[in-house]
Amino acid sequence: MLIRLANLIVVVLFLLSYLAGFSIGSERQDVGIYNDTFSENKGVWRQGLVAIKAMLKKYGYTYRDIWPEEINNGEILGDGFKILLVPGGWAATYNVNIRPPGFKNIRAFVGKGGGFLGICAGAYFACDVITWRPGPHAFEETYDYPLNLFGGTGRGVVPGLKPWTSPTGCGSGIKKGAEMVVIKVDTNLLHVGRNHISMLYYGGPWFTLTPSKKHGKVKTAATYVLPKSKRELPAMIFFPYHKGRVFLSGVHPEVSFSDCQLHPNPEGWEVMNSIISLLLHR
Hints:
By secondary structure, the protein is an alpha/beta fold. It has one domain (29-279): Class I glutamine amidotransferase (GATase) domain (Rossmann fold), CATH 3.40.50. It contains seven helices and 15 strands. Strand 1, helix 2 and strand 2 form a beta-alpha-beta unit. The longest helix has 25 residues, at 2-26. The termini are far apart.
């Protein structure tokens, strides 16, 4: 009898723990992070992904990974999360892992009121067209991208900043194409303490509108401070997409780069916090 009672208690405790776990897992998260690092085609930059999660945890946001198949099969359209965050990495690989139904599902998710945050490759991913010129002696390549949240062009690399093909001088880690740059932030839109902030540039875009396309009101949230030019090229943009909101960043606010090492970027995290608050309508 005692053995049966003990077994019953074990079963009850197991069921309670299962239900508790299910309840926690079923709660709507603040952020769903696109993650293809376990796919055959890996596009997401793993170090950036780790830093993004550290930032979200520090500021108290809930989050979970979103796999390509969840986007393709429509699970993204449920109430699982409020913002889809697509990190840096390699956008062309995202376009392989996400199939035509997936692009439609992302547009539907944002159009119905969701938020979208694209960082570097995630920003390219959201553009209608991208142009890519990796170095000063390379030909410019143009690509028609399928997601089309931003009816304009993401252009890289930014003229006057480190070319994608230029060595960093590091024997390990990031060997080419990266440097810390300064951006000028519109503090009326992003509520941060300073308007000139140093962030990692790693081949990301600047943004231009396509004249023939219809646009919602696109706001420039930050511009690149170019060492040898007075041009103010958009580094971050924010705009509505039907009932939703989209924020694209050409720079990486989640990490800084010095002495051939990656480090957390406290000022960048403050900017990210303001971006997420903006997308959450806070």
